[in-house]
Amino acid sequence: MNVITPKSGLFLACSCITAIAGVGSIFELTSGQPDLGTQTTAIILGLSIPLTALFFFVAVKDAKANLNK
Fold it and tell me: What is the pLDDT along the chain (69 residues), one digit of tens a residue?
């Protein structure tokens, strides 16, 4: 039984990408001189945290919906 659909896989991939962006932003901010500037890097960090959680939640919800089919 395969519960991962292309849609849930896409959401999971987006969750991974935003999580990596968040971790990268933390490292950039702690280095003292972020390549994209402090404000831009902080915005990326601020957006990546809720987006990671949202994409992960949607991926799990979609996978659970396909499990019951």
Answer: 677 889 999 999 999 999 999 999 999 999 989 999 999 999 999 999 999 999 999 999 998 888 876
Stated pTM of the model = 0.87
Cα–Cα dist 59/65, whole Å: 10
Q: Nearest to residue 3, comparing CAs of 58, 55, 57, 60? A: 60
62 neighbors 5 (Cβ within 8 angstroms): yes
Which residue pairs from 7-14 have beta carbons closer than 8 angstroms and sit at least 24 positions apart in sequence?
A: 7/62, 8/59, 8/60, 8/62, 8/63, 8/66, 9/59, 11/55, 11/56, 11/58, 11/59, 11/62, 12/55, 12/56, 12/59, 14/51, 14/55
